[in-house]
Design brief:
The protein is an alpha+beta fold. It is built from seven helices and 14 strands. The strands form three sheets. It has a six-stranded mixed sheet with strand order 3-4-2-1-14-13. It is globular. It binds one DNA strand through loops.
Length: 256
DNA sequence: ATGGTGGCCCGGCCA
């Protein structure tokens, strides 16, 4: 089973690239983030024409997450659904696809360490951790998406440049480690040890061509599922060319 | 290391 994640930075702007990429890559499941669409505007028919079912949780203009699948989209849950009030932003959707529980997440950016959005980010990650109490770490489960956290210093082009900034702060990394402590593995690190392998590059200043990026798009999987992973790659080709997203897709293959 | 690009939808905000 091939499962991928891609922050598309507006599905409306990216639809030609996404359709082309689906036909080329043929994932069984694709998690998308930042669709920036209302549910009414989600191009379901176009995806069905390519053989995919889909679940979308959007709010229009900002955020928005989706799961495409050609191995079923069952038991869809939008948001935290934990009874503690609705998250005002559409950042989380779950579905069961081919026997695997899949989440597509768009973790808040945080903006700055002293910003309200940073506190929202940490609270959001804690809430995601609590939601996992309702799941079994021995079951096949995967959380994919834009975590807006570089897990360690290998995952940024210059750690010194991020001191005092978001994405690398200790509380953010601890919040990610709390998810891992529940029973999730960073599948990419099961296959690659080296740094300098990134999934996001700022549009500005030619950062992609200079190799100035971060690895913030992650595939977290329970140990039993991670043990079935045969390969994982960051598809840098999708960051090239006309009208790319600022994120590259991450593609993971599992022997399922 | 600052200034830079591209998305939203039309003036800044957000990434």
């Amino acid at each position: 089973m091939r499962i991928a994640t891609w922050n598309v930075n507006s599905l409306k702007a990216r639809m030609p690239r996404v359709e082309e990429w689906l036909e080329l890559t043929k994932p069984d499941v694709l998690c998308m983030q930042e669709t920036k669409l209302s549910d009414d505007a989600f191009p379901l028919l176009a995806f069905q024409a390519l053989g995919y079912e889909a679940a979308h949780y959007g709010q229009g203009q900002w955020n928005g997450v989706a799961i495409l699948s050609r191995v079923g989209v069952d038991d869809v849950v939008c948001g935290f659904a934990d009874g503690d009030g609705e998250d005002p932003e559409a950042r989380l959707i779950w579905a069961t696809c081919g026997g695997v529980r899949v989440a597509s997440v768009y973790v808040p950016n945080g903006r700055a360490l002293d910003h309200d959005h940073y506190r929202y980010k940490l609270q959001w990650l804690e809430r995601l951790r609590r939601v996992l109490d309702g799941a079994d770490p021995a079951s096949p489960l995967t959380i994919l998406g834009d975590f807006n956290i570089a897990p360690d210093d290998r995952d940024v082009y210059d750690p010194a440049a991020f001191v005092g900034a978001t994405h690398t702060s200790e509380p953010e990394r601890s919040a990610l480690q709390a998810l891992e402590a529940w029973g999730l593995v960073d599948v990419f690190r099961r296959h690659y040890d080296e740094g300098g392998l990134f999934s996001w590059w700022d549009y500005r200043a030619g950062n992609f061509h200079k190799g100035l990026g971060m690895r913030i798009d992650l595939v977290l999987a329970t140990e039993s599922l991670a043990a079935a992973s045969t390969a994982i790659m960051i598809d840098r080709n999708a960051r090239k060319g006309q009208k790319p997203s600022d994120h590259a897709p991450v593609i993971a293959d599992f022997a399922l």
